Inverse folding.
């Protein structure tokens, strides 16, 4: 196993300055046959864009490692750093994986995130063509599109059923309504959005299940294939759901899905 | 273990006469003083309705499904309901009669009368969902001569169900159920996502994105309606796989075809069994 821990400056010197400490931890397999490539999953923890919750970071990456994939955990910059700081960090991590694909045997690059980290992950899968990303990093936008996104109880929509705190931490408070509405991601899905794997609990009182249902409707309208698992019980922020064997099935399903995309 | 098969008129003589006779198969798990919670164990019940566009009944969605529920320790019934030319509400009456019969005979059937689930696939999913959503229809209690509450299932398991009429309909199922050339409102009345209310039981739904016979919208629209009424549900959508996968393994696949074997999709059965266990507190 190769273990690398990079600051954002080491990851990509074009990334903007940031206040909230960020790092990228890479767990790259060294057990592959010469020339073989396996998928990599880049995981973004949740935390309402105010912090990166540890139980949604490395413990998730280690499961992807155990499934035979490469894994990276990005502890990205939260408030007071604002959009697009964190999205650029995600995008630079994807770019790094692509640029080191031959060196480490990296195949498809997947992104995975939870709650607000799910918003960030979905942003990378939906907004990858945004010129601010390719211009800042100085590369072709196509290099920045993830091959698939895995979203656990994601924050996605603005409005009555939103998670307000995430939008305030991402964009700042007291902004015009349309500034927040612009990041209601179900409205930004288009035919270039990457395939998705979504899961949520019906009983989630932190981020209502409508967030996932509306994204599913939008993906369907654009014929973007997705997998969706909604479990009836269980609160917000379950991560691997080690205390709930039924909900914990999502990880096995996600690992199978990656192999099928 | 015992196996029984009853003509539906044996379980409710008030059921209307039909062209196609209907019957129910009961896979009865028996209790032992030495096993599980003992001789008085009361088991959840799953009543399965195979699909077939209301034109026929798919054997691939009959025993291969019911045997899985039986193996999980549940009482598993398969209803061979009447298809075309027998029209609505005959099938719904048959389904409701079985639910009421199980509840009335819970002691003999070693059944938990508060955990009676319906399960159906494709058009059988429409019938199972009708049983769950339309259980208060006066025609049911009046025809069968039982209290409507006896006919309400405690949950419904729906695999790639026919639900909606209109843009995303599987028209053949509606034509076989209701006859062709009816006014649109006749079909729309059984567009089940419009009929969900606060008394609809919880649901377990699954579908494949690439189903080209019954579009995924059928399940998505039902999920939205259930959520709007805060009826809890579990939902599993898998990206790949054709219509009619059933249990999606060699127990249900067609001779000479591998397209109906899908290990990823076949996870749904394990999840459905867990869902029934969690709903019914049956360990």
């Amino acid at each position: 196993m190769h273990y690398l821990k990079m600051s954002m400056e080491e990851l990509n010197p074009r990334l903007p300055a940031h206040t909230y400490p960020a790092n990228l931890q890479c767990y790259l397999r060294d057990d592959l046959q010469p020339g073989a490539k396996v998928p990599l999953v880049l995981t973004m923890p949740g935390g309402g864009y105010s912090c990166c919750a540890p139980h949604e970071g490395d413990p998730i990456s280690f499961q992807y490692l155990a499934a035979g994939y490469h894994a990276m955990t990005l502890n990205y910059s939260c408030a007071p750093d604002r959009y697009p700081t964190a999205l650029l960090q995600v995008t630079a991590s994807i770019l790094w994986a692509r640029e080191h694909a031959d060196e480490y045997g990296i195949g498809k690059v997947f992104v995975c995130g939870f709650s607000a980290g799910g918003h960030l992950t979905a942003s990378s899968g939906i907004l990858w063509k945004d010129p601010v990303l390719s211009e800042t990093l100085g590369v072709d936008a196509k290099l920045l599109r993830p091959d698939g996104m895995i979203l656990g109880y994601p924050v996605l929509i603005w409005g009555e059923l939103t998670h307000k705190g995430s939008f305030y931490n991402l964009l700042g408070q007291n902004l015009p309504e349309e500034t927040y509405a612009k990041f209601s991601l179900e409205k930004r899905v288009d035919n270039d959005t990457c395939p998705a794997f979504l899961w949520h609990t019906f009983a989630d009182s932190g981020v209502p299940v409508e967030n996932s249902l509306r994204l599913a409707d939008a993906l369907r309208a654009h014929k973007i294939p997705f997998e969706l698992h909604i479990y009836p019980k269980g609160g917000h922020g379950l991560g691997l759901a080690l205390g709930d064997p039924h909900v914990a099935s999502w990880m096995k399903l996600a690992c199978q899905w990656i192999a099928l995309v | 273990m015992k196996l029984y098969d009853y003509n539906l008129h044996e379980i409710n003589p008030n059921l209307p006469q039909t062209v196609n006779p209907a019957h129910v198969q009961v896979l009865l798990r028996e209790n032992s003083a030495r096993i599980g919670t003992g001789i008085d164990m009361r088991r959840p019940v799953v009543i399965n309705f195979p699909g077939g566009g209301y034109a026929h009944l798919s054997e691939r969605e009959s025993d291969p499904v019911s045997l899985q529920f039986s193996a999980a320790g549940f009482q598993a019934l398969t209803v061979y309901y009447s298809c075309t030319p027998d029209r609505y509400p005959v099938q719904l009456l048959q389904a409701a009669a079985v639910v009421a019969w199980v509840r009335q005979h819970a002691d003999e059937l070693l059944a938990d009368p508060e955990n009676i689930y319906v399960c159906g696939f494709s058009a059988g999913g429409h019938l199972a969902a009708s049983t769950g959503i339309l259980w208060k229809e006066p025609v049911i209690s009046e025809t069968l001569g039982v209290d409507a509450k006896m006919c309400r299932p405690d949950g419904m398991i729906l695999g790639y169900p026919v639900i909606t009429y209109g843009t995303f309909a599987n028209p053949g199922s509606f034509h076989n159920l209701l006859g062709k050339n009816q006014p649109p409102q006749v079909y729309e009345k059984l567009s089940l996502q419009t009929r969900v209310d606060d008394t609809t039981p919880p649901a377990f739904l699954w579908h494949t994105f690439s189903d080209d016979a019954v579009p995924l919208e059928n399940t998505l629209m039902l999920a939205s309606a259930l959520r709007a009424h805060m009826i809890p549900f579990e939902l599993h959508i898998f990206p790949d796989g054709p219509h009619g996968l059933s249990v999606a393994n060699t127990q249900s696949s067609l001779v000479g075809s591998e397209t109906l074997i899908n290990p990823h999709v076949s996870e749904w059965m394990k999840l459905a069994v867990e869902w029934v266990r969690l709903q019914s507190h049956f360990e």
